[in-house]
Amino acid sequence: MSSVYDLPPNVQRVIARCRAGQTLVMSHDRGRRKSYALAPSGRAVETASAEAAIASPYMVPRADGLFGSDTPQSWSAR
């Protein structure tokens, strides 16, 4: 397994904030565009950074999807 330090700095920061207790949350605007933020802080996260963090082995989905566990809307750090 590679190290979290092999990831881009913006992605490392997302993971670090989640390890510190934040949750990465996805939402959609009226145009159905995805946006990401950290909860409970509300800090916005760039889409590319959020999706890279989600794709990494350091984040796990929560079972909070509208259509079941296959459609998560939030992620926590391992």
Description:
The structure is a single chain. With 78 residues, this protein is an alpha+beta fold. The chain has one domain. The protein has helices at 9-19, 47-55; strands at 23-28, 34-39, 44-45, 59-61, 74-77. A hairpin with a 4-residue loop joins strand 2 (34-39) and strand 3 (44-45). 21% of the residues are buried. The model has no long low-confidence stretch (mean pLDDT 92).
Largest sheet: 5 strands, antiparallel
Shape: globular
* H/E element order: HEEEHEE
Structural class: alpha+beta
Computed over alpha carbons, the radius of gyration is 12 Å
Q: In the residues, how many domains can be counted? A: 1
Mean pLDDT, to the nearest integer, reads 92
Strand count = 5
Our estimate of the beta-strand percent is: 25-35%
Reading side by side through the largest sheet, how are the strands ordered? 3-2-1-5-4
How widely separated are the two ends?
14 Å
**Low-pLDDT windows of residues:** none
Query: In percent, how helical is the residue content?
Result: 25-40%
Number of helices: 2
Q: What key attributes describe this structure?
A:
78 residues; alpha+beta; five-stranded antiparallel beta sheet; 2 helices
SSE blueprint and pairings:
Elements: H1 9-19, E1 23-28, E2 34-39, E3 44-45, H2 47-55, E4 59-61, E5 74-77
Antiparallel strand pairs: 1-2, 1-5, 2-3, 4-5
